Amino acid sequence: MLLYQLSINIFLFFIGLIGVTFNYNSIITCLIGIELMLLSSNLNFIFFSLYLNDLYGLVFSLFILTIAASESAVGLAILILSYKIRNSLEITENSAKS
Amino acid sequence: MTQYLHFIFSILLVFFAISIFLTKNPIFSVLFLILCFIFSAVTLLLFDIDFLALLFIMVYVGAVAVLFLFVVMMVDTKSITKKLIGKGISFPIFFFIIFLGLFFFFSIFNFINDSFFNIDNDLISNSPAFNTSTFITLSGIELLGQALFNYYNINVLLAGFVLLIALVGPICLTLDFKETKNLGGQKASSRNLTLIRYFS
After folding, report:
1. ipTM
2. Closest residue of B to A79, CA-based?
3. Distance to chain B for A5, nearest Cα, Å
4. How far apart are CA A54 and CA A37, in angstroms?
5. What CATH number did the domain enclosing A58 receive?
């Protein structure tokens, strides 16, 4: 049962990673993918702590929760700033020049 | 019963996680992200981790996903429909990424399968620094609170500092210092005047 859940978590991580690499043109999809990867690593910490009978993973998942919340806040602020400057949310090859 | 529920919920979790990246509309992808968070919290509830599951729903759905929804609805959606999916990726790079993902997946899967399921359970349950049997009289939230504020108090302070940076950083990013004198055509009251004087 634990191995099944762990493979689900790893699968979730690679869905996020592949989603980020394929949709690198839009910033908001990249942020959603990063959020999904953080969720899967958080679940991994919790289930390893369940299996090893150890409190460290449960405590550390709270800190990962903090990091995920602050990361999304700062990333969305940068997104709004780039939308204000360039009027679009796409990352193209020319976007670094303007 | 619990096993079947766990099976169904994790299959649904993976399905919603795939459909985040397959929808064209970003509002639907944010809604699928909310469904992913809810189903992972339900998966935690099945393993009797009730406090962390409720915290997941509160923080992820209540703060992060609502922030995403707010930003997606504020920015106009026509400019962010994904018309460029996979356009810059050529054909061999596509297979290379898929191959790399599968390789990492199976290597980690083999690592977990070898190193965590072939050893004795006694050896594991005696070794870790934090054994739950020392806190056996406490339960749930009380246990987490004892561990947090007795042994990890410096980490709690550092997490608070990270949250402070996340509070101050977006304000400093989105505030433009040049245009504070007009304030969007509002008539400047005395309160606004003091604000202008403070910022300029």
Report:
1. 0.91
2. B71
3. 8
4. 23
5. 1.10.287.3510
